[in-house]
Amino acid sequence: MSSMNYAELIQKTVKPEPTGIVPFALLSAGAWAINRNNFTLEQALRVAPETVAGWLFEGYTLADSAISWVGSGYNNIVVKAVGGKIKWRRTGTPDVSEPLIKTPDDAEGINVADVSGDPDVKVIYETVKRLVEKENGQRLVGGSMWAPFTLAGLLTGADALMRSVYKNPTAAHKLLRVATELYLEYMRGYANAGAKVIFMADPSASGDMISKKHFEQFAFPYIREAFERLEATYPEVITGLHICGNTSDRLDLIAQSKTRIMSLDYKVPIETAREAFGGKIAFSGNLNPVDVVQNGTAESIARETVACIEKANGVSGYIVMPGCDIPPLTPLENLQTISNTVREYNKKSGKGIDHG
Hints:
The chain is an alpha/beta fold. The chain contains 16 helices and nine strands. The mean pLDDT is 94.
């Protein structure tokens, strides 16, 4: 059995360096980890960070995830922090209730520093610190936020952003510049608090939403810039990108985006990603989060998990992971089926993590 812990395994996997061990990790799942304790995300912000860190530690430990996450589900809190309005849900994540930016000039009135000064954001950062302490180097702690393109659409409305892309590219880039600075301001707080995995999610930049041409012009440059700037300040941080939907036609660009991990939706064949990323960057996915992870039987979950590993075909840098954030009501037993299947697969190969 390997003497590596999960932190060391992920660090080696993302190089990507051959380990002979396939890791399993959840993608975010913060709403799941908090809701299972019968608290909403809004209520959790009024609970002691030490308590919430305990909930997260317990959830990711029980699921046997190689990465622990803080703040997942709170992405729209950045919009609130700069003056926008959000609507909290009983379960799951809050929605942006109305656009904050009505015209391109409104973007100039946003004070990026308001993000890290927001009281709720400060609670999240403190929770990061407490979870890092609990993990004690055994697992890396991660955080995530909307990528600039998706965040820009939340600030001004997705339809308005798409119109700008076609009719007023200058205005679109002006807004994307602000969104990039908001992303960096928020995620620096995570890194300063000890998070070693920094993701961005860009569902509006998938092939289901925009063409490869527009992805290259309006999403890719800001993804790359944000990761370059994070890497320059925090070289030990592992960056990650998740894009919902089909991204098969833009994997070549994603390989150049400075991300260390590309998280695949279930719509992207692992074989396609293997050819695009093998030996270049790590990639994860692509278990269907609803049909398989939430609603599957033990047999179907195990079958699909093994299929993902075998489709990766031993390439260095593959991580078994749901193809998106899991639904808040996902049964713990289903996650344990995935982790147990991965562990048994690793044992058959003669390697695995020594849990003592």
